[in-house]
Write a structure and sequence with these properties.
This protein is an alpha/beta fold and about 240 residues long. The protein has one domain (about 65-230): 3-Layer(aba) Sandwich (Glutaredoxin). It is about 30% helix and about 15% strand. It contains six helices and eight strands. It has a six-stranded mixed β-sheet with strand order 1-8-7-4-5-6, covered by helices on one side. The protein has a two-stranded antiparallel sheet with strand order 2-3. Strand 4 (about 115-120), helix 3 and strand 5 form a beta-alpha-beta unit. Helix 2 (about 65-70) packs across helix 6. The longest helix has 29 residues, at about 30-60.
């Protein structure tokens, strides 16, 4: 129309910008990608936790049994024998030999619970009494006795009496080895004021000396200690080496 103020599209009115408001458009985060990242982080954390748990189980299979039965114990229950803390590992270089003088690797003792008696070849009456206790204690364990071996360590080079050898060979036979007394002292130790041969020593299947019976022990009380150990280790220890 004549005289009208018309303008083409895109033109501006005097004093007013053609594009009064300018927007900058940003891309929004994808919620699906964020959820995927969070899920991946959770899986990674869970995987690490599982790996740590496996390592702990593999590295310390006896911790749970010792902790349960000798640390967190019901009120009024105490172990009769002395618990060795920390345990003393079987020395790999312990010079052991059989009665014929042939070397025996210390590692061959691992894999079974051991009831250990130390004495000389003469084996006094007190020594014979400990060997008898060793035998009876194993038999008192019933069906669990197959998880236990008897070990008699002779600390000199003299010959054993024929009747003693025969008794030690009776079914089930005891393992009889020789070792120097000073070398044994690097592994086993008596109570203060007692000689090395005064005790029965309990060694776990990993070769750790972990318990010492009192001199002249009460068999019934000692049996209870051993029962707790066998019960607590039943999940990881099986009969045989």
């Amino acid at each position: 129309m004549s005289g009208s103020n018309s303008s083409a599209p895109g033109s501006s009115v005097v004093g007013v910008p053609a594009d009064p408001v300018s927007f900058t458009v940003h891309s929004m985060p994808d919620p699906r990608a964020a959820a995927s990242d969070a899920s991946q982080q959770r899986r990674t954390a869970l995987g690490r936790l599982k790996m740590l748990m496996v390592l702990l189980v593999c590295a310390s299979p006896v911790i749970a049994s010792y902790f349960t039965y000798f640390v967190i114990r019901p009120q009024g229950r105490t172990n009769y024998s002395t618990l060795i803390q920390p345990v003393r590992e079987l020395p790999a270089a312990l010079p052991l030999a059989n009665l014929e003088g042939q070397p025996v690797p210390a590692t061959s003792l691992k894999g079974q619970w051991l009831l250990v008696v130390v004495g000389d070849a003469a084996c006094s009456e007190a020594c014979e009494k400990r060997l008898f206790l060793q035998r009876q204690l194993r038999e008192m364990m019933g069906r669990e006795r197959e998880r236990i071996d008897k070990l008699f360590i002779v600390d000199d080079v003299a010959a054993l009496r024929p009747e003693l050898r025969e008794a030690l060979a009776a079914t089930p036979p005891a393992t009889v080895l020789r070792a120097p007394r000073d070398a044994l002292a690097q592994w086993l130790a008596p109570e203060a004021g007692q000689p090395l041969e005064a005790h029965l020593y309990i060694v776990d299947p990993m070769g750790n000396w972990m318990m010492r019976a009192p001199a002249d022990p009460d068999p019934a009380k000692l049996k209870k200690d051993l029962e707790r150990l066998l019960r607590g280790s039943s999940s990881w220890d099986q009969p045989g080496r």
